[in-house]
Amino acid sequence: MLKKDLGLFLLIVVVGAVVAFLNPRFLSPVNLANTANLVGLFGLFSIGEGFVIITGGIDLSIGSEFALFGVVFVDLLVTYHVPWILAVLIIIGFGVILGWVHGFLVTRMNLQPFVVTLCGLLIYRGVARWYTNDGTAGFEFGQTFPALEWITTGRSFGVPHTFVIFLFVAAIMAVLLHRSVFGRYLFAIGKNEEAARFSGIATKTIIVAAYVICGALAGVSSIFLTMYTRSISPASHGNFYELYGIAAAVLGGCSLRGGEGSILGIVLGAVLLQVLQNLVNLLGIPSSLNFAVMGTVILIGVLADQQLVRVRQARADRAKESLRATAPLAR
Amino acid sequence: MAHSLLRLIDISKSYPGVRALSRVSLSLGKGEVLGLIGENGAGKSTLMKILGGVVKPDQGTIEIDGAARPSLTVSESLNSGIAFVHQELNLFDNLDAGANVLIGREPLLAGPLKLVDRKATKRIVGPLLRRLNVDFDVDDLVSDLSLAQRQLLEIAKALSLNARVVIMDEPTSSLTSAETDRLMRVIGELKADGVSIIFITHRLNEVERCADRVVVLRDGSVVGELGRDQIRRDAMIRLMIGRDLKSLYIPPKSPPGANVLEVVGLRTLSHSGHAVSLSLRAGEILGMAGLIGAGRTELARAVFGVDQALGGEIRLNGAPLSIRSAKDAIAQGVYLVPEDRKRSGLVLEDSVAQNISLPNIFSFARYLLIDSGAERKNAERQRQSLNIKTADVETAVGTLSGGNQQKVVLAKWLSMRPKVMMFDEPTRGIDVGSKSEIYSLMRGLADAGVAILMISSDMEEVIGVSDRIVVMQEGAISGTLNRDEFSEENVMRLAVAHGPEQSAA
Q: Within an 8 Å CB–CB cutoff, is residue A194 touching chain B?
């Protein structure tokens, strides 16, 4: 696990160094702060996605949730004049509920996570567009929320708060995933659900909890994104963002088969994705190639990792073979 | 037989530590039905794998149509006309019957697109199905077919390969008596057409009905052969058993105490027609014998809560238990060491310490955070007391040997004060040294007052380790034996079914 994270870290350093060499503006405080802001925005929900992926599932609905949560959040503030703290709690609660529904459908109704959250992707996007009549939702002229804005879009000592909060959440989630009973159960279920069940673990409850965490973090992220864009066109807001989350998790060492991954890896994955975006901008590559660059780098990264796994597997097999030679066979 | 179609001469095969076959010879004539019987682990599967070309014998000769060779490859076996009807059927149930018969050999339409010629499929498979008198069609989906129909489809597949020798491995184990009758008729017809059949089964009455000759295997050797007029149940049983069992028995320190676990009228999914009742006393090792598929594992799984029981009651120290999941059973101190430790017992990629603490992790946690020091200390303690051979407790369990893996499964439960321990095939695939360690561990637990249920298909183990034996047969308990009644013959008599019609009576 550690080796994987170190490799990713080195890759970020190398890519960063190359970009900085070609365009020194990469290291300018303004650019670094902007990039950190984006890392924070995209990293928050990537962590949630990681939890779901570790159970062997996937959540495709995050981008659409951003549109739906965004228009509801704006409406709560603008039309209903709900105090912003209450509005934030309502949105996070909304995320918890949708996550719970996903988890319920996956564990109790035995639906495939891909199908459940694909339906979520379609439903939430559709509802968001209907909610505003396909219009753009935004704050009224002159409407400000100083405290909320300070938290979500402010900076301290030049560091964007999104990034600070992202690191804070990542630290909590790292303890949860790598040190707590819940995290231990999550990994055990991802690797061998049957053995976990035979050990008396309430596997369904744990899986539902992973979806709930993912939904809650999507709720938190949607508030940051809304305050960042300040207006929401529900047809396009957050489009494809779930794929950023999946990409960050996969780059960070999560296996889509479940049971593998680390928070540090996901954090580094999120950083690498934004550095790549930045690279496209700074090196004058046509921004239409943005996705192509991202896809290529992920593909190369996963391929390289696979080769390493194969080498390690071959070594383990040889060790096992020599063990088997000394133990009698079952019948 | 004057001219044998197939002869095996002095076939031997060893696996590391185990002699699976030792100088086995047998022959099969054209149109002959040969019954092959023997206990679990007598070497039947290995012999069949050699015929199928999957396993190479160490020594011996295989003669087909008089041509001798040292071993077969899979394609040589196929081309010689040897076909298998497997115990676990190898059918694609998402495809139709015709597609399954011709899988990999689909007739094609002319043209570059390689489209499947459906009419030709019908033309080829139709007559085969008619020959077997089946009541389904070429284009029926396999998922709509009953088990018996699928078995017949497998036979049709064998015939489509121009099989001259059809090997049936426990073909009737999941058939009803009417279906078995039909299979017997089909065997008769195949025989009349000159197809030879090797019929492997535990159901001796079926051998009596259809076999021309019976070969009995025991511990990898042919121990006897019976001609048509000698095939009788008691003669077969006498040949199947009769080993000298070396004594593994460690007597208990004190006589068994009160009933700890009582199972009353429990019905499981696999044999929903039979209710099982048994009681387990404190300090005793209750052996549970029976043939594979007799419903023993299903019983243990239902008691442990990983499968839902269909009905019945489970009582612990007289009080009824409601067990809806393994969690409930574990909370009551009822533990299972499962049959397939890699699948159900361990997370192979995780460390020894992590596996041991998994069911009991809250006792190594403070404020829900795991204290890995305490976890490691406990694992270290278990490693010493169980003599688990591993470099250290941080090693991944998957790299340990079978015996040591099993000790890790045991360690999971031993740190949690068991009241009832159920072992399902506790020493399968485990070396002799670890075996005896596990036996003395079991006895130690029993002497400490734990009630132990040991499911085992290993006759030596059942007779050598148990204080009392219950035998299951086709989902029901067919008898209980006390120590003075222990003999291989008595266990076999209770384990071997007469066949569905008698056992239902």
A: yes
